[in-house]
Specification:
The complex is a heterodimer of chains A (428) and B (1050). By secondary structure, chain A is α/β, with parallel strands linked by helices. Chain A folds into 2 domains: 251 residues, Purple Acid Phosphatase, chain A, domain 2 (4-Layer Sandwich), CATH 3.60.21; 81 residues, no CATH class. Chain A has 11 helices and 15 strands. In chain A, a hairpin with an 8-residue loop joins strand 5 and strand 6. The longest helix of chain A has 25 residues. In chain B, the strands form 3 sheets. Chain B has a 6-stranded antiparallel sheet with strand order 2-1-4-5-6-7. Chain B has a 5-stranded parallel sheet with strand order 8-12-13-3-14, sandwiched between helices. In chain B, strands 9-10-11 form a 3-stranded antiparallel sheet. In chain B, a hairpin with a 4-residue loop joins strand 10 and strand 11. The longest helix of chain B has 69 residues. Chain B starts with a strand and ends with a strand. In chain B, 24% of the residues are buried. Classes of the chains: A alpha/beta (428), B alpha/beta (1050). Chains A and B meet through helix 1, helix 2, helix 8, helix 9 and helix 10 of A and helix 7, helix 9, helix 10, helix 24 and helix 25 of B.
Chain lengths: 428, 1050
C-alpha cells in the first residue's frame, strides 16, 4: 500500500500538427498523425484508470496557443471527465503555450479537476485526508514568463507529501525557450525545502534532474511531433511509499513514433540491393515500434558503389525509393511511413587526393577551402541567396534570414560535393 | 620531321621536277602568280596524305606536261631517319611506297610514325594552310584539335553540362518567376492560412453561441413553470365541464327519490313474470280444448265400414297383374308383326336354296365347309393358275421377238455377202505390200546418199584442183605477214623507248625489242621452209584422202541401188520410178484394206445369225414347258373341286361366289329359326296373363271372352283399381286407430298443464302482496321507477367522484359547480385558459428549437477536424518550401563555386596551347593584347583576347589582320604543343602575311623564324617584299639561320 500514486504528464500539445513533413501522407497515415496527440492523451487516461492512480498531474502546455482548437479543449475535458467518473483527481497548470490569458471556450471542467492560477496555490489530493498529499501549482498568466516562478512559492507545510507542479526551463536548456528560468537549487530550496516532488513540464525529452529530496523530473511530451522528437514518448507513473520514497516508472503512451533510420549503402551493388537494405531496416524499425505507427526519415550513408551512386544522382530516384518503401509498408497496420529519404552518402572521390591535382576539380575544392577564410569570396558565393531569403513573399517561411554559420558551411560542403560529382560524371 | 626533297613526276603543270635538298629550317618558295606555289603545296599534302578520288570535285592536278601522276618526297624524322615517300595517283589515295636511303622498302604504316600520327585534318588545319584557311575559324570548331585548346582532360569538359544541370534550380526558385515550386507551395500555404483564419473565428462564434444557449435555457425554465401552472388551471376547468352533467343528474334523481314510497322485497321482474304466467294459463286451456276435438274425430274415423275387403286376400296376384299389364299389351300388339317377319325370312331362305341348286337343303348348307383352310386352298390354286398363265404369255412374247431378230440377222448376212462378192481383191497381200514399201524407202534413202556423195566428190575435187594451181595468197598467210610487220615495228619501238627513257626502261625496252624481233625471224624462216618443200601439202593430202573416201561411198551406193532395182522389178532406180512404184503400192494397200473390212463384216453377220437361231430354239422349248405346267395346275384344281362334291366347272373366281351364297343361305336359316322361337314365347306370355285374369274374375263373378284380348285387359284393369281402393281404405282405418290413442294421451296432459299454470300465477300474486293481477301491476310500476332513479343517482355520484378524486376534492368540486352555477360560464373560462396554455406551449417549442440549433452549431464547432488537417498541411507546405529553399541554396552555391573556380582556372590554368598562342600573339601584336584564353564552361567554342585596357574581344570583334594574327598564333601554339609531345611536323604556309601591316608582318616573320628552331617552315609567296621580311627577321633573330629561298619561276 503506497502513500500516493500518480501520473506525471506534460506538454500534451493537443491538436498541434506534426512538423517537418515534406511529403503528403496517405490517408491512413494522415489520420493517425492528426489524431496522434489525442490518442496519446487517451492512452494517459486509460493508464490512470487501469493503474488506479490517485491523480493525474499535467505540467503545462496542454494545447499550443495558436492551435487551441475547440476540439482539443472538448477532448481534453472529456478525458478529465472520464477520470472524474473513475474517482481520479486531476491537477493542471498552464505553460507558455496555453497561458491563462489565452482564449478558452466556456467548457465546464469536472469537479475533480483543479486548475491552478497565476500564483502558487495548494490543493490536497485527498479531500478526506488533506494531510496526506498536497499539490502546489502555478500557471503562466501570459505566454512569456521570464520571472523565476519558483521564487513565488511560500513556505510549505512539511507534513503532507508535497508536489510542485510547474512549467519551467531548469538549468537553461538551449533547445527550449527560457521561460520561468530557474536552477535545480532553486527547486531544491523552494518553500524551505518543503517540496518532495517537482512535476515539471516544458522540456520535451524526459529526464530526471534530481532523483530524491526532492525528485525533479520532466516526463517529456507524450507524443513526438517532429523528426527531432524520435523514440518512445510517455509519462511517469510515480509511486510514493509511506517513507516518502519516490519510484519513477516511465510508461510510453505515444501512438506514432518518429524514427531516423540510417542505412549504410556501401554493400549495395545494385538498385535492388539498395531497396532490400531499406526494406530490412524498415522492418527492424517496424518491429521496434511495438505495434505503433512509425514516421521514418531515412538517411543513406556510407560510400555508394558507382552504379548505386549513378542512380542516386538521377533526378527523382530518391522519391522513387521512398515510394517503394511506402508501397510496402505505409498501408500496413501499424504502418511505417517514410517521410523522406536523404542522401548522406560520402562524396564519391577522395578529396585530399583531388586537391593535389592541377585540374578544374582541384580548383573547385580550393575555392571552397579558400571560402572558409576569405570573407570576400564567401560574400561572392552567397551573393545570390538574398534573392530568395529576402523575398517579401517567402522570407517569413524561411526564418527571415539566409543560412549562415554552420548551416551555410554544411550547405557549401554539400554544394561542393554536388558540383564535383556532376563534373566528374562517369569519369571519376 | 622535315622535308628534304620534292620529286614531282607529273602533277598539274609540273612534270619531272626535283626540288631540294632543303637544308635550312626555313625555306621560302618564291615565284610570281601562277608559278605553281599552291600546286607545290598541294603536292606535298597529297604525297603525305593521299590523292583524292578521281570523282572528287577537288582539283585533281592531273599531269598537264606528261609524267606519271604523282611523285615523291624525301623526308627526315626528328631522329634524322631518312625515307623516300612516293605516291602515284590511284584508288584509295593512290599507291604509296616507302624506301630507305639504302633503297630498302619500308612498310607504308611507318609513314604515320614520321607524321607523328597526325591526321590529315590536323595537318591541313594546323601545319599546312593558305591565307583563306588561316582566315577561317574552322580551327576552333574542329574536334580533332579543339580538345587541346579547351583543356580536355583538365576536368572542364563536363562544365557546361554541369552548369546546365545546376540550372534546374530555377524550377525550385527563380527571381521574378511565378511558376517555381516555392511560389506554388507558398500560394497553397496562403490558401490554407486563409482557411485557418476562418476557422479561428470559431472561437468568437463559440462564445456568442454559448451566451445564446444560456439565455435560451433560462427562458425555457421560466416558461416551463408557467406552462405547468396554466396546465393545472385548464385541467380543473376541464374537470368542471366533464362533471357538470353528472352533477345535474345527481341533484334531480335525489329530489325524485324522496317522493317515491319504498316497497320491500317486491318480486324481481314481477310484471313480466305475471304476463308470462297469464299467457301460459290461456295456452294450456286452448290446447286442452283442441285435444278433446281430436279425440272425438279419431273415434268417428275408426268406426267406418270397408267394401270388397276380401280382395285384400289376393293382393299378390293382383299386384302381379298390375306389374305385367303393359307387357301383356305389348305382346298382343307385337305378335302379328313378328309372324309377318317370319314369313319374309322364310321366303328369302327358299330363294337362296333355289339359287344354289336342287341338291341343296338346309342340312347341306349347315354342313358346308367355309373354313379359312379352304379359303387358303382356293387362294393357292388361284395363284398357281395365274402364275403359269402369266409365264406362258411372257415366254411366247419373247419367242416372237427373237424370231423377228433372227430374220433381221439373216437379211444382214445376205447383204454382207453381196457387198463382198462385189468388192475386188488385191493380187498382193498386206505383208507383201509392206515389204515393197520398205524397199522403196531404202532405195530412196540410198539415192539421196548417192547424190550427196557425188556432190562432195565434186567439191573435194575442186579444192584439190585449186591447191594444185594457186592464184592469190590465202587470208591466213596475209594475217601472218601483217603480224610479222607489226612485231617488227614493236620490237624496234621498244628498243627506242628504252633508249629514250633511259634508266631501268632502257634495258627492259632493249630486251623486249630483241625478243619480239627474234620471234618474227623464226616465223618467217618456218614459212619459207614450208613453201620450199615441192611435195603435196598436208592440206591437199587431207583433201585427197576425203575425196577417196567419198568416191568409195559413191560406188557402194550405186551397187546397192542396182540390187534394189532388180527387187523392185525396174530398170533403174530414180526418183520418178520410185514415186510411181510407191503410188501403185499404196493403191493396192488401200484395196486390200477395204476387202478385209467387208470380209470381217460378213463373218460378224454369220456369227449373229447363228446366235439368234439358238435363242429362238431355246424360247420354243420354254413355251412347251410352260404349257405343261399350266395343264398340271388346272388338273389339280379340278381334283380339289371333286373332292368337295362340287362340279368341276367351277373356277377359282366362281367358287368364291358359291361361298358367298352359302353364307347368305346360312344367315336366312338362322333368322327363320330365331323368329319361330320368339313368336312361340310371345304367345306363351299372352296365354299365361289371360289365365290369371280369368281365375280372379271368376272369384268376383266377372265373365269374359278369353280370345278377346281387349276384354281381358279391361277386366284386369278393373280388378287392379278395386284392389287399390280397398288397400287405401284399410290404411286409413289403421291410422285412425293410432290417432285415437294419441288424442286420449294429449287431452290428459293439457289438463295437467292448465292446473300447473294457475298454481304459479296464484303464487306470484301472493309474493307481490296482492290477490289481483291489476293491483300487482300497479305496485310493480312504482318499484321499477324507484330502482331506475337509484341507479342514475349512483352513476352520477361515481362519475363525480372519479372526476374530483378522493377525499375533500369531491366536495370541493361540488362546491365549485354550485358556485359557477352555469355551464356556459365554465366553457368560457376553459377556452380562455386553453388559449393561454397554447401560447406558452408555442413559446417553449420555439425555445427548444432555438436551443437545439445552438447546441448543434456548438457541436459542429467542437467536432470540426478540418483545422487539424489544415494545420498539418500548413506545416507540410512550410517544410516543402524550406526543403526547396535548401535544395535551391545548395545548387546556387554549387553554381557560384563553379563560377569562382572557372575564373580562377581561366586566369591561372589555361591549356598549354593557349599559353603558347598567347606568347606568339603578344609578340606579333607588340604587346597590344596581353591575354589570350579559351573560356570554359561554355558550349560555344571560341577564344577570347584581352587588350591592355582589359577589354575582352572575341575573334569576330577583331580586324581581319588581327584575327589572322590570332589564328596564326593559335596554330603556333598548337604546333608547339604538339611538338613537345610528338614528332615536329613542318609548317607550310601560303601567303599568310599579306594582310599584316609591315610591323606585324615583321613580328610574325620573327615568330616563324622562332618556330623554325623546332619545326621546319616552308613559306610560299609571290611577294619579294615578304621574302625580304623573312630575311630581315632572321637577321634580327639571334642564332637564326637565313631562310633558303627557291625561285619557282625559274
Amino acid at each position: 500500500m503506497s502513500l500516493l500514486r500518480f501520473i506525471h504528464a506534460a506538454d500534451l500539445h493537443l491538436d498541434s500538427p506534426f512538423k517537418g513533413l515534406k511529403t503528403v501522407a496517405p490517408h491512413n497515415v494522415a489520420n493517425a498523425l492528426y489524431n496522434a496527440t489525442f490518442d496519446a492523451f487517451d492512452n494517459i487516461i486509460d493508464l490512470c484508470i487501469s493503474e488506479r492512480v490517485d491523480a493525474l498531474l499535467i505540467a503545462g502546455d496542454v494545447y499550443d496557443g495558436a492551435d487551441r482548437s475547440l476540439r482539443a479543449q472538448q477532448k481534453f475535458i472529456a478525458g478529465l471527465e472520464r477520470l472524474d467518473k473513475a474517482g481520479i483527481r486531476s491537477f493542471v497548470c498552464h505553460g507558455n503555450h496555453d497561458p491563462l490569458d489565452g482564449w478558452e471556450a466556456r467548457l465546464e471542467y469536472p469537479p475533480g479537476c483543479r486548475r491552478f492560477g497565476k500564483d502558487f496555490e495548494a490543493e490536497p489530493v485527498f479531500e478526506e485526508d488533506p494531510a496526506r498529499a498536497v499539490v502546489h501549482g502555478i500557471s503562466y498568466q501570459q505566454r512569456e514568463v521570464t520571472d523565476n516562478l519558483v521564487l513565488k512559492l511560500g513556505k510549505v507545510d512539511h507534513t503532507p507529501f508535497s508536489i510542485g507542479l510547474l512549467h519551467a526551463n531548469v538549468g537553461g536548456d538551449p533547445n527550449h525557450p527560457q521561460y520561468s528560468p530557474c536552477t535545480l537549487d532553486d527547486l531544491r530550496y523552494a518553500g524551505n525545502r518543503g517540496i518532495d516532488y517537482w512535476a515539471l513540464g516544458h522540456v520535451h525529452t524526459r529526464r530526471v534532474l534530481n532523483q530524491h529530496e526532492p525528485t525533479v523530473a520532466y516526463p517529456g511530451n507524450p507524443q513526438g511531433r517532429h523528426a527531432n522528437e524520435p523514440g518512445e514518448r510517455g509519462v511517469y507513473l510515480v509511486t510514493v511509499d509511506h517513507s516518502r520514497r519516490v519510484e519513477l516508472d516511465f510508461r510510453a503512451v505515444d501512438t506514432v513514433r518518429w524514427a531516423r533510420l540510417n542505412v549504410d549503402v556501401s554493400t549495395a551493388k545494385t538498385e535492388q540491393d539498395l531497396q532490400n537494405l531499406l526494406d530490412q531496416r524498415v522492418e527492424k524499425a517496424w518491429e521496434e515500434a511495438d505495434e505503433r505507427g512509425v514516421v521514418a526519415r531515412i538517411a543513406l550513408t556510407g560510400r555508394a558503389a558507382d552504379g548505386v551512386r549513378h542512380s542516386l544522382r538521377r533526378t527523382g530516384y530518391l522519391e522513387d525509393l521512398q515510394e517503394g518503401v511506402n508501397d510496402n509498408w505505409a498501408s500496413d497496420k501499424p504502418f511505417v511511413w517514410c517521410e523522406r529519404i536523404e542522401d548522406e552518402t560520402a562524396p564519391p572521390f577522395d578529396r585530399n587526393e583531388r586537391l593535389k591535382g592541377s585540374d578544374f576539380v582541384a580548383d573547385v575544392l580550393r575555392v571552397r577551402d579558400e571560402s572558409r577564410t576569405d570573407e570576400e569570396l564567401l560574400g561572392r558565393l552567397r551573393s545570390d541567396l538574398q534573392d530568395l531569403y529576402a523575398h517579401w513573399q517567402f522570407k517569413k517561411h524561411l526564418g527571415g534570414a539566409e543560412p549562415a554559420g554552420d548551416e551555410l558551411a554544411d550547405l557549401l560542403d554539400e554544394a561542393e560535393s554536388m558540383a564535383v560529382d556532376l563534373l566528374l560524371g562517369d569519369d571519376r | 620531321m622535315k622535308i628534304l626533297k620534292v620529286q614531282i613526276e607529273g602533277f598539274g603543270r609540273f612534270a619531272n621536277l626535283n626540288l631540294g635538298p632543303f637544308q635550312r629550317p626555313m625555306v621560302i618558295f618564291h615565284g610570281p602568280n601562277e608559278a605553281g606555289k599552291t600546286t607545290l603545296m598541294e603536292f606535298i599534302r597529297r604525297v603525305l596524305f593521299g590523292f583524292p578520288d578521281g570523282r572528287s570535285r577537288l582539283n585533281l592536278y592531273r599531269p598537264l606536261r606528261g609524267g606519271r601522276h604523282g611523285g615523291g618526297l624525301v623526308i627526315a624524322s626528328d631522329n634524322d631517319e631518312v625515307v623516300t615517300v612516293r605516291r602515284t595517283s590511284g584508288r584509295q589515295g593512290g599507291q604509296v611506297t616507302l624506301t630507305t636511303e639504302d633503297g630498302a622498302p619500308l612498310s607504308t604504316t611507318e609513314l604515320g610514325r614520321f607524321m607523328g600520327n597526325a591526321t590529315k585534318d590536323v595537318f591541313e588545319k594546323v601545319f599546312s594552310f593558305t591565307l583563306d584557311e588561316l582566315h577561317s575559324d574552322e580551327l576552333l570548331s574542329d574536334e580533332s584539335v579543339n580538345g587541346q585548346i579547351y583543356g580536355a582532360g583538365m576536368g572542364v569538359a563536363t562544365l557546361p553540362k554541369t552548369m546546365k544541370e545546376l540550372e534546374k534550380k530555377n524550377t525550385l526558385f527563380l527571381k521574378g518567376g511565378r511558376q517555381h515550386d516555392i511560389a506554388k507551395a507558398a500560394n497553397q500555404l496562403r490558401d490554407i492560412e486563409s482557411r485557418l483564419e476562418g476557422i479561428e473565428n470559431h472561437a468568437r462564434e463559440f462564445a456568442r453561441l454559448t451566451t445564446e444557449l444560456n439565455h435560451a435555457e433560462t427562458t425555457l425554465k421560466e416558461k416551463n413553470a408557467e406552462l405547468r401552472k396554466r396546465q393545472t388551471l385548464v385541467d380543473d376547468l376541464k374537470r368542471n365541464l366533464n362533471a357538470w352533467d353528472d352533477w345535474i343528474e345527481l341533484e334531480s334523481t335525489e329530489k325524485r327519490l324522496v317522493k317515491l314510497p319504498t316497497i320491500e322485497n317486491f318480486p324481481q321482474d314481477g310484471v313480466n313474470r305475471l304476463e308470462k304466467l297469464e299467457e301460459r294459463v290461456n295456452t294450456a286451456n286452448i290446447e286442452h280444448d283442441r285435444a278433446g276435438r281430436r279425440l272425438a274425430n279419431a273415434e268417428a274415423e275408426v268406426g267406418k265400414p270397408v267394401e270388397h275387403e276380401a280382395i285384400l286376400n289376393h293382393s299378390d296376384a293382383i299386384n302381379h297383374l298390375e306389374r305385367s299389364r303393359n307387357a301383356f299389351d305389348a305382346s298382343v300388339r307385337d305378335l302379328p308383326k313378328r309372324e309377318a317377319e317370319l314369313k319374309e325370312h322364310d321366303r328369302n331362305l327358299k330363294k337362296t336354296m333355289r339359287d344354289l341348286g336342287p341338291d341343296w337343303n338346309e342340312s347341306r348348307l349347315e354342313n358346308f365347309d367355309l373354313s379359312l383352310i379352304v379359303q387358303n386352298d382356293i387362294l393357292d390354286h388361284e395363284s398357281r393358275l395365274n402364275t403359269t398363265q402369266t409365264e406362258i404369255g411372257r415366254i411366247r412374247a419373247e419367242l416372237a421377238q427373237r424370231e423377228v431378230e433372227l430374220e433381221e440377222a439373216r437379211q444382214s448376212k445376205s447383204a454382207a455377202r453381196q457387198r463382198l462378192d462385189q468388192a475386188a481383191k488385191s493380187d498382193l497381200d498386206a505383208e507383201q505390200i509392206g515389204q515393197y514399201l520398205r524397199l522403196i524407202e531404202t532405195a530412196s534413202s540410198r539415192l539421196r546418199d548417192l547424190k550427196s556423195a557425188q556432190e562432195r566428190t565434186t567439191t573435194l575435187q575442186d579444192q584439190l584442183d585449186s591447191l594444185a594451181h594457186p592464184q592469190t595468197p590465202t587470208g591466213l598467210e596475209g594475217a601472218a605477214r601483217y603480224a610479222a610487220a607489226v612485231a617488227a615495228a614493236a620490237g624496234i619501238t621498244l628498243i627506242a623507248v628504252g633508249a629514250v627513257a633511259g634508266g631501268l626502261a632502257l634495258p627492259i625496252g632493249l630486251v623486249a625489242g630483241i625478243v619480239v624481233l627474234a620471234a618474227l625471224a623464226a616465223i618467217l624462216l618456218y614459212q619459207r621452209l614450208s613453201d620450199g618443200a615441192g611435195a603435196e601439202s598436208p592440206l591437199a593430202a587431207s583433201i585427197r584422202e576425203s575425196l577417196n573416201r567419198a568416191e568409195d561411198e559413191q560406188a557402194r551406193l550405186q551397187t546397192a541401188l542396182e540390187q534394189d532395182a532388180t527387187e523392185l522389178n525396174v530398170e533403174a532406180i530414180n526418183d520418178e520410178c520410185l514415186f510411181v512404184s510407191r503410188t501403185q503400192l499404196e493403191e493396192k494397200q488401200e484395196r486390200q484394206r477395204e476387202w478385209k473390212r467387208l470380209s470381217d463384216l460378213l463373218d460378224e453377220a454369220r456369227r449373229l445369225t447363228n446366235q439368234r437361231q439358238e435363242r429362238v430354239e431355246r424360247s420354243r422349248e420354254a413355251v412347251k414347258k410352260a404349257q405343261q405346267q399350266t395343264e398340271d395346275a388346272e388338273l389339280a384344281w379340278k381334283e380339289w373341286l371333286r373332292a368337295r362334291g362340287l362340279r368341276d366347272q367351277f373356277r377359282t373366281e366362281t367358287i368364291t361366289e358359291l361361298h358367298n351364297k352359302v353364307e347368305l343361305g346360312l344367315a336366312h336359316v338362322q333368322s327363320v329359326q330365331d323368329y319361330r322361337l320368339r313368336i312361340a314365347g310371345i304367345q306363351k306370355d299372352i296365354d299365361e296373363y289371360t289365365d290369371a285374369v280369368e281365375t280372379l274374375a271368376l272369384g268376383f263373378g266377372v265373365q269374359f271372352d278369353e280370345d278377346a284380348h281387349h276384354k281381358v285387359a279391361a277386366v284386369a284393369d278393373r280388378l287392379i283399381e278395386v284392389h287399390r281402393e280397398v288397400v287405401d281404405v284399410a290404411k286409413d282405418r289403421t291410422a285412425a286407430k293410432e290417432e285415437l290413442q294419441q288424442a286420449k294421451q294429449a287431452a290428459k296432459e293439457r289438463e295437467a298443464d292448465v292446473l300447473t299454470a294457475q298454481e304459479e300465477l296464484k303464487a306470484l300474486l301472493q309474493s307481490g302482496g296482492v290477490t289481483g293481477a291489476e293491483e300487482f301491476r300497479g305496485r310493480a310500476k312504482q318499484n321499477s321507477e324507484r330502482t331506475e332513479l337509484e341507479a342514475k343517482r349512483n352513476r352520477a355520484a361515481n362519475q363525480l367522484q372519479r372526476a374530483s378524486g378522493p377525499g375533500q376534492a369531491l366536495e370541493s368540486l361540488k362546491q365549485r359547480l354550485r358556485e359557477d352555477g352555469d355551464l356556459q360560464i365554465i366553457r368560457e373560462k376553459t377556452n380562455q385558459a386553453k388559449a393561454e396554455l397554447e401560447t406558452v406551449q408555442n413559446e417553449i417549442g420555439a425555445l427548444n428549437t432555438e436551443r437545439g440549433r445552438i447546441q448543434a452549431e456548438l457541436g459542429q464547432l467542437i467536432d470540426e477536424e478540418e483545422s487539424s488537417k489544415l494545420r498539418m498541411e500548413r506545416e507540410r507546405l512550410i517544410e516543402e518550401i524550406r526543403h526547396c529553399a535548401r535544395e535551391w541554396t545548395k545548387r546556387t552555391l554549387a553554381e557560384r563555386l563553379l563560377k569562382e573556380a572557372q575564373r580562377k582556372f581561366e586566369q591561372e590554368r589555361q591549356p598549354d596551347v593557349v599559353r603558347h598562342a598567347k606568347a606568339f600573339f603578344q609578340g606579333i601584336t607588340g604587346g597590344r593584347y596581353d591575354r589570350v584564353y579559351s573560356p570554359i564552361g561554355d558550349d560555344k567554342k571560341t577564344i577570347t583576347v584581352t587588350d591592355g585596357s582589359g577589354l575582352q574581344k572575341e575573334p569576330a570583334q577583331l580586324s581581319r589582320g588581327t584575327r589572322e594574327q590570332l589564328f596564326l598564333s593559335m596554330r603556333f601554339g598548337l604546333v608547339r604543343d604538339l611538338g613537345e609531345r610528338t614528332e615536329s611536323l613542318p609548317m607550310i604556309v601560303d601567303e599568310v602575311l599579306v594582310n599584316f601591316d609591315a610591323d606585324r608582318a615583321l613580328r610574325a616573320a620573327r615568330a616563324f623564324i622562332e618556330l623554325s628552331r623546332y619545326n621546319q617552315v616552308l613559306v610560299f609567296t609571290c611577294h619579294p617584299a615578304i621574302v625580304e621580311v623573312f630575311q630581315k627577321a632572321s637577321a634580327d633573330t639571334h642564332g637564326a639561320s637565313e631562310p633558303q629561298v627557291i625561285d619557282i619561276g625559274d
